[in-house]
Automatic annotation (TrEMBL):
Residues 16-78, 309-376 form the HTH iclR-type domain. The keyword tRNA processing does not apply. It comes from Streptomyces chrestomyceticus JCM 4735. Residues 77-276, 370-554 form the IclR-ED domain. The keyword Transcription regulation applies. InterPro entries: GAF-like_dom_sf, HTH_MetabolicPath_Reg, PcaR_PcaU, Tscrpt_reg_IclR_C, Tscrpt_reg_IclR_N, WH-like_DNA-bd_sf, WH_DNA-bd_sf. This is Transcriptional regulator. Coiled coil: none annotated. GO terms for biological process: 3,4-dihydroxybenzoate metabolic process; negative regulation of DNA-templated transcription; positive regulation of DNA-templated transcription.
Length: 564
């Protein structure tokens, strides 16, 4: 959510009005938590229903939103915008490993945050789940005065920055514009209260003197933190690393002594990493994607007509031009990378700069942390089953058979997502249902990805009992089947788990090409022959797996995506 401040300046003459209006819909949907009735979006934005419908149609085409009945829902593809900023900043890529090691060493949560206006925004989280602890997400925005990190950044504010902060505090005394934090009570907004102007100014001075800052339950009771700035080679703070604990473990008085020695070592390591030359990478064009070129937006406009807001697609396209090795780009490079006409790219860039998603020195444009407000935090809680479910539902609509996803759990498979049609089994399969891996299509796909020695050990640990007269129980024959499955990339199992049931499965791979799950289609054995089943269903199944993988790879770029 964009927090209250002084009245924004009027848009420049070159600004693209439809892009400004369209992004207000995306911001409203993000601020609602990622799901909102379309009618509520109309009321939240003040736009006509027809305008909101066209914006949602465009975002759906881009893979950024789904429309489910009366609701609009953020989709994993939207994360590519935040990924572009995070990759361009290089902060998670360079600093997250050290933050993760610090979290392991201290057994406490560790965060990386950057300044964003008069707030701070998280760009990495190494979280330790604790009882009575508030968990923040990548992309969440906090008021500067509600934490240790903000005092560090405010130490470098000029008078204009302090004025903007005071104006925001006056306009929003309860922090209602910051949904990531509990609202401040009206009675706490006085000048002598915690988080007040006087108290925050005092903490800023203390942080400037000490070189670190303490949060003594500023966000919620029990939550304490210590933070230090991470500076670039010119001494400028580019981010801050904070260690977060709870008073049930360490009090605010105990926390600095407990964590500062290792925190200082980590900050020194991070600053050394920032000073090192960047790894070699392309600086000209972004990663290839059919939706990242103007030819795709033109084709979509021709196909969808007025239901496709091309100016919105072009604006988002310019954001994806940034990335690793492409932190700052001139207009010419953005136009080349996106295929947009130079004048079109310029108008989009100036509009995004006006909205705060880009900054410019007059020649080079850079993405800002505000890009993360476009859905990154709501989508950061996605699990693999969350990602898979809508794709499985679309698959079932196409093939009219049940579809599922499962993961390997010991010698069993465990269902983590399922979309049923007509019930064809005597047992009721739900999320959490377990079956032995060896007589199931998904189990064989998952076992086939194991190294040969692990496959052999797995079969040796499994009680290979016949579940039907067709069940393969010979270890040697199963080993041969698994090797063939590995070669073919799919498994078809015919009446081995239950009489009359046939299923076909393919693997789902993560960004590192590791098989993390399997998806299948279950059908009645009497509907068609095994060969017809393979020829009819396998192409649909592989397409679905590829779509799940695309979303998983986008989400997994900077997020930890739970498999189940």
């Amino acid at each position: 959510m964009t927090h209250p401040a002084a009245d924004p300046p009027p848009p420049p003459r070159e600004a693209v009005g439809p892009l400004i209006r369209s992004l207000s819909v995306l911001r409203a949907l993000s601020a609602s938590g990622g799901r909102q009735a379309v009618g509520d979006l109309v009321r939240a934005t003040g736009l006509a229903r027809s305008t909101v419908d066209r914006v949602l149609s465009t975002l759906a085409r881009l893979g950024h939103v789904r429309v489910e009945g009366r609701d609009a829902v953020l989709a994993p593809g939207l994360l590519e915008l935040g990924n572009a900023y995070l990759a361009a900043s290089e902060l998670p890529d360079r600093l997250a490993p050290a933050a993760d090691r610090l979290a392991d060493a201290l057994d406490e949560s560790v965060s990386l945050a950057v300044p964003d206006g008069d707030g701070v925004r998280f760009v990495h989280q190494a979280t330790r789940r604790r009882a009575m602890s508030l968990a923040f997400r990548i992309g969440d925005l906090l008021p500067a005065e509600r934490g240790a990190v903000g005092a560090l950044f405010a130490a470098d504010w000029d008078e204009d920055a302090w004025l903007r902060w005071r104006q925001r505090r006056a306009a929003d005394p309860t922090d209602a514009g910051f949904p990531a934090v509990p609202p401040r009570r009206d009675e706490d907004a006085g000048t002598e209260q915690r988080g007040s102007v006087a108290e925050f100014t005092s903490r800023v001075e203390a942080a400037r003197t000490a070189g670190w800052s303490l949060d003594d339950q500023l966000i919620e009771p029990g939550l304490v933190a210590v933070a230090m700035p991470v500076r670039d080679s010119r001494g400028r703070p580019v981010c801050a690393v904070s260690v977060v604990s709870h008073t049930s473990r360490l009090t605010a008085e105990e926390l600095p002594a407990a964590v500062l020695p290792q925190l200082r070592e980590t900050v020194a390591e991070m600053e050394k990493s920032l000073a090192a030359p960047p790894p070699p990478t392309s600086t000209s064009l972004p990663d290839p994607s059919p939706t990242r070129h103007a030819s795709w937006t033109r084709a979509s406009k021709q196909e969808l007509g007025p239901e496709f807001v091309e100016s919105l697609a072009r604006g988002l396209l310019t954001l994806t031009a940034f990335g690793t090795g492409r932190a700052a780009l001139p207009l010419t490079t953005v136009a080349e990378a996106t295929g947009l006409a130079r004048a079109t790219a310029r108008r989009a860039l100036l509009t995004l700069e006006h909205l705060g998603y880009l900054t410019s020195d007059g020649r080079l444009f850079r993405p800002t942390p505000k890009v993360l407000e476009l859905g990154f935090a709501p989508l950061s809680g996605l699990s693999l089953p969350d990602i898979a479910q809508p794709h499985l539902a679309a698959l079932v609509e196409r093939v009219h058979d049940s579809a599922s996803m499962a993961v390997l759990s010991g010698t069993d498979i465990r269902y983590v997502a399922r979309v049923p049609t007509v019930r064809i089994m005597s047992v009721n399969i739900t999320v959490g249902t377990r079956f032995p891996a060896y007589p199931t299509s998904m189990g064989r796909v998952l076992l086939a990805d194991l190294p040969p020695a692990e496959r052999t050990a797995h079969l040796a640990q499994t009680d290979l009992v016949p579940l039907t007269r067709h069940t393969v129980t010979s270890p040697d024959r199963l080993a041969t089947i698994l090797e063939q499955t590995h070669h073919d990339g799919y498994a078809l199992v015919d009446e081995e788990l239950e009489e009359g049931l046939r299923s076909i499965a393919v693997p789902v791979r993560d960004r590192h090409a590791r098989v993390v799950a399997a998806v299948n289609i279950s059908t009645h054995a009497g509907h068609r022959s095994p060969t017809e089943t393979r020829d009819t269903l396998l192409p649909h199944l592989r397409t679905t797996a590829a779509r799940i993988e695309a979303d998983l790879h986008t989400a997994g770029r900077y997020l930890r995506v739970p498999i189940a």
